[in-house]
Design goal:
The complex is a heterodimer. Chain A is mainly α. Chain A contains five helices and no strands. By secondary structure, chain B is mostly helical. Helix content of chain B is 85%, strand content 0%. The chains are: A mainly alpha, B mainly alpha. Chains A and B meet through helix 1, helix 2, helix 3, helix 4 and helix 5 of A and helix 1, helix 2, helix 3, helix 4 and helix 5 of B.
Amino acid sequence: MSDRRELGAIFLGGMVGALVRAGLVEAVGDGVPAWPWVTFGVNVVGAFLLGYFVTRLQERLPLSTYKRPLLGTGFCGALTTFSTMQVELLKMVDVGRIWLAVGYVAASLLAGYAGIQLSSAMVRRLRLRS
Amino acid sequence: MSVLVWIGVAVLGGVGALGRFALDGAVSARFGRDFPLGTLAVNVSGAFLLGVLFGAALHDDAYLLAGTAVLGSYTTFSTWMLETQRLGEDGETRGLALNIALSIAVGLAAAELGRLLGGLL
């Protein structure tokens, strides 16, 4: 069983991630059925950050019990969202914007994947120099 | 928007993250971590539940709390992408393609099924 402080770190990170995402949705709207800037933005930024945190914590810093639950599982996990993306896709298809939906999936995947590749490479290059 | 709603968003967002950790852990303990089934289970179940809320035409604060806060935090794009990228890095090209295709196909089907059921509520 996980210890309480690990669960506390996940909870805390999740609170902050959800607040940032929900705050952005309330402030600028979700944009759907046009391009969902908020979901797209938090997903790409969150993926980049997760690649940075996980690579740094796993391969560079001394083992820490709470940083990954706090920053990775909690914050980045909650900042980004999969379910909202699927429902946004349904809304696009509902109004006949099939190609927008295809483009949204493709752009999210490419930018998310590239972001993790980039942030992981950044951490590894810094490590090799030091 | 009241302060109380935002406190609710924060607390429920934390709960969603814990729910993801719990299910991912349970699925990974049962099936191993070679293929990221835990995240797939979380994302598909979350897409289904958000589809139910959408189908039931939940609005405003109720949708913000149950949908955006709980299910938004419960499901994750970043971990899904990280696990996919790591499969690619390890040369598991089939696993990479499968993880993307399964998540999108089953996720969309789950959201649509949820919407149909939610519409009956």
